Automatic annotation (TrEMBL):
Name assigned to this protein: ABC transmembrane type-1 domain-containing protein
Transmembrane segments: 6-37
Keyword Membrane: yes
Top-level taxonomic group: Eukaryota
Keyword tags: Membrane, Transmembrane, Transmembrane helix
Amino acid sequence: LWKLMMLLLLLLVIVVVVVLLLLLVVVVVVVVVVLCIQLHLEHSI
């Protein structure tokens, strides 16, 4: 029973870490896109 609980906890931790990493990647991509758009706008003016 304990091993099952430990496995479930491990799975939960892995899922949380993966979700956090995905969120981080999304945030980085959004920031890069926004910066690129701002740069393009500044150059076009």
